[in-house]
Amino acid sequence: MIRWFLRLIFFLFLVTFPLNAQIFDLITPPILNMGTTIEDTVVSGIIKFKNTGDDILKIGRIQTTCGCTVAELSKTEYAPGERGEIEVYFNTKGYGGTLARKSVMIHMEQGTPARVRVDIQTEVKALLEVEPRFINLQDLSLTTDTLEQSLTITNNYNRDMAVTDLYTNIDDLDISIDEFTLKPGDSQNVVIRPIMNKPIRVNGYIDIRISEPVERTKRVPVFIKLDP
Fold first, then answer.
1. Fewest Cβ atoms closer than 10 Å to its Cβ: which of 35, 48, 152, 191?
2. Chain centroid to CA 137: how far?
3. SS3 at position 132
4. What is the largest CA-CA distance in the chain?
5. What is the pLDDT of residues 80-107, one digit of tens each?
6. pLDDT value for 11
7. What are the boundaries of each domain within the chain?
8. Taking the model in full, what pTM does it have?
9. CATH architecture of 21-125
């Protein structure tokens, strides 16, 4: 009976306090902020961790949420007390004007916890920034209100930007302007003016086209509702 009782105590000790443990201890914050950047660039960050257990930690695989994010690990096994780093790269193409957030999931082959999630985030400024994001000329009177609004076009890139054309699908909208070039960080105002002489309600858009440093079109929605 005593022998059986001692064996039970030893078994419970092993279950509660395993002799060999591999613990993935995340050093980097669970949300890795990679700062502010411009679209069409690749930003990078480092996820840092440490094996705080007393046995070999083995990482099985690393999963990212989309093809725009790549996570690279130089090796998969880490001795007790050893630190490691995962290099993360995020391609910002198509994310201009957003706070982009992507996830990196780290799966353990041998170790605890079974998986660890780290979110990476970066504020991505649009290469071609336009304010406001839409033209709102609604509930205005033909006789009493000023029927115009300005668009501010800003070059956030580190090279000259050639604005080649402003096109609208609304016939009675005046946006005539010559081609111009913006230096890095410069802005230019463009006046948008309806030339209607009767009440009207119409929705459309303005396309701002650039040819340098890359070919791109920025579409600005337009909402017009003019009362007598």
1. 35
2. 31
3. coil
4. 104
5. 999 999 999 999 998 988 999 999 999 9
6. 47
7. 21-125, 128-227
8. 0.71
9. Sandwich (2.60)
Residue with tokens 């668009």: 151
User: Taking a C-beta distance cutoff of 8 angstroms, is the pair 124, 91 a contact?
Assistant: no
Distance CA 101, CA 90 (A): 10
Distance CA 216, CA 207 (A): 10
DSSP letter string over 166-197? EEES-TTEE-----EEE-TT-EEEEEEEE---
Q: Distance between CA atoms of 49 and 60, rounded to whole angstroms? A: 15
Backbone dihedral angles phi then psi of residue 38, each to the nearest 5 degrees: -105, 145
Cis omega (within 30 of 0) for bond into 184: no
pLDDT recorded at residue 57: 95
Q: Which two tokens stand for residue 65?
A: 């949420």
Distance CA 205, CA 112 (A): 54
CB 93 within 8 A of CB 71: no
Phi, psi for 40 (deg, rounded to 5)? 75, 15
Structure tokens given for 12: 């419970």
> What number does CATH give the domain 128-227?
2.60.40.10
Mean pLDDT of the chain: 87
